[in-house]
Amino acid sequence: MKEIDLYSEAKPRYYQLIPNKEDGLIILALYQKYQKQEFTEDQIIQIINKVLTDLGGSHREENNRNNTIILRLQEFFLWRDRKRKVYGFKNYGEEFCQKVFKRLSESYHPAKIERLFKHLLDTLRTCLEKKPPELLIWMDDHFNQRSNELALQIEILDQQVSESVDEFRFQINQRQDNIHQVIDIISAGLDQIKQHAHELTTGFQITYDIDDILQDMLKDPSNFEILDSINHVLQYNQNVRNHLDQVSVRIDKIKPRIREFIFEFNQRELDRKTDKFLHYLLDNSSYIRQENQPKRLVFPEEIESFSVKISESIPRFYILTEKDFVRKAPIPPAVRSVDVEQTRTAMAKNKEKLEKKKKIQFWANKAIDQIEQEGKLEFSPFFFSILAHEQDDLNIAVKTAQRLVKQCSSWQYKITVDQNEYHDPNYLNLSLWNMTIQKKI
C-alpha cells in the first residue's frame, strides 16, 4: 500500500469523504430505498426534501440547494450515467452505508465470541504443527478476519452503557409519576450490561492460551523473523482485555452516582413535603381558649388527633447465671510444627529465582544503555557474552533476549534480523541469526 500523509490528503476533501449530518442522512435514506438499484435526479430531490423537512429545514424546494447537494455527493458517494440520466451508488458509498447499517444492527453474542476465540486457538495449533510453522498464514486467513469482529463486541457494550446514561439523563429531566421505577429500570439495564461484560471476560480467557503459545515461540531464536507478527497478536489480545475492563470499570463508576442521585432526590422530596405540610398547618390550624386555660392548638379536620408522650425512665433488669461467675479454663496455645528442611529448600529456590531475575534485569539494562550510548546493539555477540559470563546458563540468555525484544518493540527502536547465522567459536553447537537493535532518531 502506498504511504501518504493522511492528514494533508484528507484535509481539503474532509467533508466529501465524511459527510455532514444532512448529507449523511440523505445518503442513508437513498441507500435504504434503492440500495443497488438505479434512481433518477427527481427521486434524489424527493429524498432531499423529505430529509431536510424532517430535520426542520425549509419546506419549499430550492434548485440551487438541491444541485449543490447532488454535486457534492457525486464526489465520492454517487455516480451519474449522463446518457441515461440515472444515478447509482459508488463502492465507497455502499461501504459507508453498509458499515453504518452493520454497526446499528449488530447485537451482542457472547457464545459467538467464545466460539470465534476457540476457532482461533484450534487453527493456531494446527498451523504451528506444520513444518515450517505457518503463523503468518494463520494471521492472514483467520486472525485478521476475526479481530475487528471481536473488538466490535466490546464497542457494542460500551455503546449500550452510553445509551443507558443518555436515557437516564433524559428521564430525570422529564416529569415522572414514579421516578424510582425509572431508576430501577435503568439500574437493571446496567446490571445486564455488566453481566454481558462478565460473559465476554469468560470468552476472552482463551486469549491467555493463545498468548502462552506465542510467548513460547519467542524462546526459539528461529522465530526472530516473525517477532513483529507475534507482538502484534499479543498486543491485540492485551488491548481487547484492557478495553473490556474499562467497560466494567465505567459501569462500576456509574451505579454509585445513580444511588447518590436517589438519595439526594429522596432528601429533596422529603424536604419539599415537609415544607408543604408545615405551610398547610400554618394556614389551616386554629386555636381555642377556655376560661382560665392556656391556648389550645386545633389542627385541621383532615389530620387525626394525637398526643405527645414524654419519654420516661424505665428500669431494666439483667439476669445473671452461675456460669457468668465461674472462671473459664485457660485454652492451651496451639503448637505449630515447622518443617525446617522444607522451609530451607523453598527459601533456596526463591533466592535462586530472585538472583536470576536480577541477572536478567542487569543484562537487559546493560543492553539498553549500550543502545542509548552507541545508537545500536549487535545482539548476537551480546547473547554469547551473556552465556560466557553466566557459566553457560542458556535460560538467562534467552530470558534476557525476550525481555529486550519486548522493551524494544516500541516506536523508539528498530529491530533488524539477518538470516545469516552468527557462530561463536566457544559454542559450536549453537548459532543465532544476526539481530541488530537500533535507536530511531
Helix content: 55-70%
The overall pLDDT, averaged over residues, is: 80
Structural class: mainly alpha
Count of the separate structural domains: 3
CATH topology of the largest domain: Methane Monooxygenase Hydroxylase, Chain G, domain 1
Secondary-structure arrangement, i.e. CATH architecture of the largest domain: Up-down Bundle
How much of the polypeptide forms β-strand, as a percent range? Answer: 5-15%
* Shape designation: flat
Rg measurement, Å: 37 Å
Largest sheet: 3 strands, antiparallel
Unreliably modeled segments: none
The number of E-state strands comes to: 7
- Helix count? 14
The CATH class name of the largest domain reads: Mainly Alpha
Protein name: DUF3375 domain-containing protein
Organism: Flavobacterium algoritolerans
